[in-house]
Batch of 4 targets.
Target 1
Amino acid sequence: MERLHRALLDSRDPDTVDSFFSPEFESHNNPPGFPPGLAGVKQFFAMFGEAFPDAEVTIDDLVAEGDRVAVATTLTGTHQGQVMGVAPTGRRVAVTGIDLLRIEHGKIVEHRGLTDTVGLMRQLAG
């Protein structure tokens, strides 16, 4: 998981998604307006990369059993690009989230997750 976050955030190359996610990937929690599947994942990471170019992800907890992984993370970064309709504020934020993943053949095929978007919006509002 750490390798996934580092690769996606450090490279800023949306095609890095293909190395970690199956072509049959399905997310049950796509943000509004994002396409399904890999296209949505690429769009999401591109948006976050532009909004928080100095983003760092800390893995707070991780549990793996069989083909399932549960991971709690904290993303920290400086708001330097538009995110969810909010223009750049220059504020430093910390956003927590929990992701449940199903893995097949070494790639992520299914995702359910929750991100503290209310907390993010509060931080951006100051």
Note: Strands lie at 21-27, 56-65, 68-78, 92-104, 107-115.
Target 2
Amino acid sequence: MADRSAGDGRTAGTVTGAAGAGSTAEIGRRVLRLRTERGFTQRQLAEPAYTAAYVSTLEAGKVRPSEAALRHLADRLGVSYEELTTGRSPRDATRLRAAVTDARRALATGAAEDAAGLFAEVRDEAERLGFAEERSAALLGLGDCALETGDLTVARDHFEAVERLLAGEPLPRRVPAIRGRAVAHLLAGELRYSCYLLESAIDELNASGLHDPYALLLLYTAAIAPYMDMGRTPVPYAPPSWRSRWRRAWTTRGSSHGCTAEWPAP
């Protein structure tokens, strides 16, 4: 069997391209840890495609492995290629998403401080593992917890952090954070700016053709409160099929707030 280390060996550094984003030293340590946990010798891990000497060199961080070598090692170790190259396991993502669900459940029962602690744990671990989606979900939850406890500045900071984290994502992904920020401004008495945030997002969604029903629902429902408090209606931004819903909301909320503005004709 030929020693494959000559063909795959390169100078130590960062594994780039298809091989992932981990440094050679990090991957080497990961291979060593996984091999030791499974009780493999270097020869058992290497064969039949590679040699024990190559695995030894890789574990020492002295060779930059090729994608083929990493896929072979991942298969032998019983992990995914992504987990071997990045240290992130799909199981970790599933676990973090479950933790977000638990935190949401705690928040729904009124235990905002307990929920905030759970969200903070998810945020920190997701950041350590490099899971942007789970981190943004945790930050969004922290913002909602801060709204619940009345920490409006903290809430805005969390929602803005979500928007920055998802800056390159389609607008519908950022809508929950935009809505949260608008609610924070509303609760701070900044009604017009709250409306501005919501209207701008609705206009952008409509102009871009991103007619995401859930995103629009979040924005339209959030717009009711500030419009009612200003004695206006959100009709110009609502599709015709939703206007009867606004009429019912206007009647209920408007009467309870002493609002005298009339509902405009369609």
Note: The two ends are 80 Å apart (CA to CA).
Target 3
Amino acid sequence: MKKKKKKKKKKKKKKKKKKKKKKKKKKKKKKKKKKKKKKKKKKKKKKKKKKKKKKKKKKKKMKKKKKKKKKKKKKKKKKKKKKKKKKKKKKKKKKKKKKKKKKKKKKKKKKKKKKKKKKKKKKKKKKKKKKKKKKKKKKKKKKKKPVIYQEAKYPPLEPLL
């Protein structure tokens, strides 16, 4: 058997990179933005409709009711207890001191004098008074009573002719 010869791998040389100097950048101040609050929408709950169940009517049987006898209860007498009187202690009242209030002085304002204007006199017109008319009262006419002649039924016709 022949032995296989191992091949040697060639190593690649790495190139060195030159490092560049970085310039420092000035940092800008960022303005803070106000966050808006979002309003939550309320969800409406749907009402479920309940189904009504039909009740079956039961037939009632007529039965005679028995009368029950009532028992009389005996009343017990209560004993009265004597109450002891307690002595009350008197409390001393403290006097309160009143504080005096300081009054503020008001400043007086100076009034300016106004010049008087002369007014022209106006002639007054005389108003005529209206006379009130008096209402005349109507007199009621008296009804004449019919003249009754005793001698004749009709009145005499001589003076009229």
Note: The chain has no helices and no strands.
Target 4
Amino acid sequence: MKKYIYFLLIVSLGIISTGSVKILNLNVPDLIEVGTSDIELDCQYNYEEDEKVQLDIKWYFENDPSPFYQWVPGQMDRPQVIGDTFKDHLDLNHSVSDKDDFKRYRALLIKEPTVNLSGVYTCKVSSFLSEDVKQKEMIIYSPASSVIFEQDRSQNGHQVNITCHANGIFPQPQIKLTWGSYQFDDSNALVTLEDEGHYDIIVHRLVDHSDIPSKTTFGCILTIPGIDYEVREESVYYHRDGRRYMSERRRSGGAGLGKYPTHILLVLSLASLFSDMMIF
């Protein structure tokens, strides 16, 4: 009797273990630049033959408990999009080149991705017997649309106002002003989230002319934490007794992950030469 019960237990466990939906690979790009035309997110999985009519494939975004994409191969000819976030960004006719009809619509094709689609993507494949879940974060970054770096005399004429302003950038950037090899504390930077999801950031410092040698270098460094993105602006500042008479400006960077060549821009500000020059 005990042997019979033991045999039934083994058989029962064997039946339960046949449910083995398994996600083999979740292909989600780590980082892409806004403006990329199409992105494919692929959830590659395997299943047991007796599970295929029960398969349910769902994609989730961030912490939303409701999926934004669902496909039940045994019941639906095409997948469906749920909610408004991805409504205009998914190609529901996109299929992977797989001969298995029960894997055909496992992948997403996101059209014209925007920064608000940055976040954690979760794929869940389930049947009545088992399920598997994997997730991965994708960041859609936007380089700064403009970076303005300026140095001007303050109203009292005894200081230099150093200002760096960048906008149209995502994710939230960091910005630092530099004086030679010294970096100022950036805690007074003002960061604003714009309506379209990009960031605007500005920082400024006042430096006494009495502390500045006749030739010095001021700079601005704009970065996005966690991303290989950096823009540097530098200005070689010349003055006599508090009056600027010439400046040389350099810009470098703006490349993301080495995809674009670093460029250097050198500008000699002749306007400053004539407007601020003092001749003794």
Note: Confidence is low (pLDDT under 50) at residues 1-18, 255-280.
